[in-house]
Spo0B C-terminal domain-containing protein (Bacillus aerius), 197 residues
Amino acid sequence: MEEIPSKQNEKLTHVALTNELIHLLSRSRHDWMNKLQLIKGNLTLEKYDRVFEIIEEMVIEAQHESKLSNLKIPQLAYYFLTFNWESHFITLEYEVLGETRDLSAYESQLLTVSRELFSIFDQSVCQKTENHLTVTFQTDHEENDVILYFDFKGKLTSLDALNAFHDANYPCMSITQFHVTNHESMIELCLRQERDM
């Protein structure tokens, strides 16, 4: 008797995963079509330098997507790759500096701190301006830690939540740089594995 519900659950899970995959492919295709339209428009206007810039930006973005996807942090990679597809008041960019390595031991910390800071920025910005957040992963730190840089440019309406983040105590993480103003912010975090504590 228990096999039937189990098979039904498997089928439902398979259907849900298939629907999610189709949705992701559709969003990705939409992004690529937008970029191709930019190239086509600039070709029509004979702005060849801009065409080469757009192509170079696409190559760099694809390289960072590839590096992020190969860090063995699938939940975080999914969160970053799909962030701009949802409704937010910040636009996310990211880059991975250093060699691709296994960051699976850090995934929970990375996901927690990223979600928290993204939420703080999203709720603290002026909704009528362009707001950009660039997250840089530095994977080649000499002590085998992971360094994260959160570089914000835009307009913040309140610094309270960011200052509260700075004042909070986080296990396995230290804030090594914290410069926050109403128009730009640079936060540097050093994450250590729990067993190193």
About this structure: Residues 28 and 82 are 9 Å apart (CA to CA).
